[in-house]
Batch of 3 targets.
Target 1
Amino acid sequence: MSGLIVGLGNPGDTYAGTRHNIGQMVIDELAARSGSKLSVHKKSRTRAATVRIGGEPVVVAVPMSYMNVSGGPVSSLAAYQSVAPADVIVVHDELDLPFGQVKLKRGGGSGGHNGLKDITKALGTPDYVRVRVGIGRPPGSMDAATFVLKPFSGAERKELDLLIALAADAAEGVVTDGLEAAQQYFHSPRP
């Protein structure tokens, strides 16, 4: 297997349209592009599918656990698929980027993101690739934990499909072109 792309979020209908679940939305998009459906992978407690990106087989998956305990499912699936941590791509919501921006990086800290913190602990390294999907900062004095569990605003929903597609394109770009080339392309200003 040439790689694993995991989208973070929380399970269940309550969280389906929330900012914290943008990673799962991106995985749904990647699966849909190849005509695949995610199915339960019991050994890893994920929903997963094998898709083709640039002719290569890649597993796309979402943990069936809550965000803060994503590490076990991610590391279990990576081990099951014989994917090294360096070939794991994690798609997640990012408070420190404005809504609509997508940035790519390898490694680094968790930035207070408990899902990333748990994945780093479970994989034993922070050196996996992150597709950081900007959701912006909470308005006023709203708590960040409250903000990420709220649905997107009406204005954001009008742009949400474009953001999901951009993040999916970025994840595919990492697989087909490598991280540095994908960074150069996706970090460049758009007209």
Note: Helices lie at 22-33, 71-80, 114-123, 144-148, 154-177, 179-186.
Target 2
Amino acid sequence: MNGLHELPLIIFTVLAQSVVGAWLLFSWALCRPNATQSKQYLHKAMFVLLVLLGIGFFCSILHLGSPFRAFNSLNRIGSSMLSNEIASGAVFFSFAGLYWLLGILGKMPEGLEKIWLILTALLGLVFMYMMNNVYHISTVPTWNSALTSWQFYLTVIIGGSALGYALLNANPHKEYRLCYVPYLYLTGLLFAVIVAIYQAFGLGHIHSSVQQAVELAPDFANLQALRFSLLALAAIALCKLPKTWALGVAALAVIFAEMIGRLLFYALHMTVGTAVAG
């Protein structure tokens, strides 16, 4: 499969998007009134998000070849989408990590906590926006469309809701209600199906003088079927099996399913030269 050579980027983008989505749910839970009893658990559970984000960034460094290239990629902040992505991701990671550390140590001032959470959530959204912009390349017609944005932002919703729900539901105190989260997941799943169908029909109209876009991913239909089967099974767990172990397995299945979708995304990379879209 063509996209496998971009495995580090597959892991990085899916994990980062899922963590940002889950962080939004955590921020909502922590900003709820009377969430005092939940704070200790939520601060501990946040470590899982930071570990996953750390794994993602480590994979992104593997893609660049060395940590020095990662530092060099920051040289063009403001003019390079890649530099903006790395910088915004590093800032989000730093704010999230510092919040977690202060929270675990009990050093976070109460008057600053909600402001910090909201600011970090906004930084996460900026990170997602910059990541999306990296892939809108005019010379890659299979990426340079609104479908790329839909795919990336839907992973934030699908992966983030599944991961966040699994961690938040395990809280023994729960001064918050999570009944809306499965509906958020199902809404994201519905739109993901629509995007996949629309993309499948559109690939036949993208070509160069020597290659059709549909030839880049001959297993597109089979892999999408596998992806959505996993997402559907996870939906059953989220809606009908509110057990900690079942939700944990469902979250892992969702992340793996979204990695399948991202594998197809990278497999459809197509440089132009003489390419024609439409």
Note: The first helix runs from residue 7 to 30.
Target 3
Amino acid sequence: MSDNSAPRWGSEMLSVLRIVSALIFLLHGSQKLFGVPATDQQPPLMSLMGVGGVLEFVGGLLLLVGFLTRPVAFVLSGMMAVAYWMFHAPQNLFPTLNGGDAAILYCFVFLYLAVVGGGKWSVDAMRDSARRGL
């Protein structure tokens, strides 16, 4: 594999990262909101966890298709930072011991998406191409 392979497939792999992260993330929201995948814990919609479920589900769907990727990813990155410091860090500072490793990972993946956008396979990229007349 040559050094030129990364730029050639970079935008596609960025899209893959966005799509896979969004799919897994929206499952957290669907579990909180609809009990799917099956769970015994469905928080009230107007609770902190219920609002988190709405952000996870709706934000996950928007990221999945790559629509408004930068602002949505920025909001979700902040949400995951708050989730870590509010729910995980008080239990133990080490992410492997407090269960917050996923929150940290989502926080930084979403922060990355907020900076670079959704990649080649996104609604945002299609809209940009249409605006430029390509």
Note: The first helix runs from residue 5 to 34.
